Structures are given as C-alpha cells and as structure tokens.
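Q: I'm writing up a methods section and want to include an example of the input and output format. Could you take the sequence below and give the corresponding predicted structure tokens, formatted cleanly so I can copy it straight into the document?
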Amino acid sequence: MKRNGILTVIIVIALALSLLLVLPMLKNGEKSNEYGNTKNLSAGYGKNDIKETITPADVLGKGILTCEEDVLQTAAEKIHTEKVSFIACGDNLIHSTVYSDAKTLAEGTDKRYNFIPMYDNVADIIKDADIAFINQESPFAGDIKPISGYPLFNSPDEVGYDLVELGFDVIGISNNHMLDSTTAGYKRTIEFWDNTDGAFQIGGYKNKEDFENIKVIEQNGIKIAFLSYTYGTNGLTLAKGSELYVPIYNDEDIDRQTKKARELADAVIVSIHWGTEDSFKPGPEQTRKAQIMIDNGVDVIIGHHPHVLQPMKWEERKDGGKTLVMYSLGNFLSGMMYSRNMVGGILGFDIIKAPNGTSVENAYFIPTVCQYNYSVRGFKIYKFSEYTEELEKVHGAHKFDPSMSYKYMRNIINNAIPDEFLTEDFYRN
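A: Here is the clean output for your methods example:
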C-alpha cells in the first residue's frame, strides 16, 4: 500500500475511535425523563428492539484492514439507530348516513354499530404502523345528547372502539365540531378517550394546565411530542365557569409550545385544524402559522378541516433540518356529497433517531377514495391504486355532483401530491 493510503487509513481509524469515546458521553448527557404527560407505547408495539454498542473491535475487525472504506463501512453498520413508522389519516366525520350504514352492518351481531368493514381495504396499513393517528372530527357525548350527524354531531361510542381495534393509537379531537354536543359533551368525549385502553387522545384538555402539559409518547426509544390546535368551534363556547380548555390557536401559543416541545422530545408533531373548506390551496394564515412552526423546528405538520387535499411538501429549516408539511389530508371517512370531498389519503413516514440527531425520512402518501352507493350506503374506503372507473361510475356522489369523474379525482391527487411521495402502486393504476 502506498504511503498516502496508509496515512489515510490511520486518520480514519483515529476518527472512528474518537467517535467511540464521544458516543457514550453523549448518551450519558441525555436529559432526564421530565416530560409532563408521557405515555410509553413500547410494550407490544416495538419492532426495533435491537440494542448494540460500538467497540474498537467492532470497528477494526479481527483481520487487517486493507483500505479506509472498510473502516467507514464497518463503523456505519455498527452505529445504532431507532425507528418509528408513523401514519396519519384525515377527517373521520361520522354523518348520519355513515352511522346508519354501520347500524345495518351490525345486524345479527352483539354490536349496535359496526364500522370495521368500512376500513377493510386499509386495515393492514393501519395495523402495521408503529403509531397510527386519525383526526376524529365528531364528539362522543354518550347519553348527554341523541346520536346525530351534521350540523351538530354526536357519534356512537362504537366509532371509537372500532378505531382502536383497527390499530389507531393517537386520536386528535381539536376541531370546529368539538363543542357540537355542548360543554358536557366535550367533557364526556375527553373522558371517553382517556378511559379507552390503547388510545392516546390529543386536542382535548381538562383545564389550562392540562393544555400546557405537553403530551409525549415514547415509542421504540424515541420521544415524540404532540401539539394540537383548531381555528375555532363554529361560534360555540364553553359554559360559563367551565375549567375545560379549547385549544383555539394563536401565534403566541404556537410559538411558545413548539419551542418547549422541541426541548422535551426527539421529534415534534403538530395536528392543526385550519384553512378554508373546499379550498385546494393553503391560505396566508396557514402558511404564516406553518412558518412559525418550521422556524421552531417542528418535524411534521398535519393539517385538517378543508375536507379536500392540499399540498404536501418538505420545508427547509434554519437549523439545517426539514419539516414535512401536509396542509390538508382531506376526508378519510365521511358522508359528504361532492367528488372533491371523496379524495383523501394516508400520510406515512419514519422517524429515525441516530447518535447525531432525529429526523423524518421516507415520507410517502397513499391516496384514498371514500365510496358509497346511490342509496348513500355501503361506505368503503379504497386505496386509489385499487380504485377503478367502474367503481367511480356507481358512486352515490353522482346524485349531487354531475361533474364527478375518475379523471377529476386523480387530478386532485396530482395537483396536491408531488411525484416523490406517491408509491409505485399508484402509478400502476
């Protein structure tokens, strides 16, 4: 080996050994577990349990290295990383047509309502994720009010039970319908989710202190902070004297809480109800608030409310990282009437924690269509890659939307989602 080649190997080995000395010190310097409202989902969920340490023997191997690439490759293979696979679904809006259909599906069983079959085509995606999030737009007021749909929702408890059975872990409830069933209904919705095993509710707060106590999940060794806000509640307000807190967004709260969350966790995710219904483009208020979150190091912004898809993109940050922004996920399941409201999707990504930091990687989007028949029954979510023009022709939304077409729905997806995020299955269709 030439002299300069030997010198290069010596330098690389020295760097690798220095890394071995620094890593344990970094690990010992981690912050203590003072995270406020923290939930550990590792038991029964973790798919990345391998624990490794790096030793000089691992780097140098048992034989004699012949080039610097051997050192770099061996060291890279031994650097341990943690991973959490995450998916997020849009508005789960239980109109009267939806729960009436679920009541029919429950006939002959011991359930009052059965929503499970409506999600059959995407159930594997939900179940396979380490963490699955959904925006549950309608409240669960129990017997406080009769079961109802638009405009003042009160959904059957079976919706919640079925979502958890499907594999949803994180349930977002901050939205413009959260007070539809009065203050008592909001209180009962929070209690329902807090008492449902397997559910981690965000967006509903018992008081201002609860709102300020940022919720953190620890999964596969990664701490993830969740924040949740809504633009309003359709003019409804809490009863006088109530301690309950509705997370109406403002710049000061977003700025303060995202900075605090950044200190508490490895990754920060914000679920936010914003924008204009049926608008395919984010408005200036959305982009301005998004910039506050981006500047403060938020990793993922998940938007809701417009009931249609809005753009998905990466935004570069001043700290050298990047923020994944989904301005609106559209509807997941609903009884809305127009073709634009049938198109939604599943946002997916991995949260990767390495010795040099945590990042969001491998982002993707699976477009979906909410299907029903001309009787506005037979609700079913389809992956667009499995959706056909024949299904589109018998969609019940044709009754309300004469301009509905398969091509139009595909164009909605093409206009909102860059090619880099769409899977190979989508392009086969």
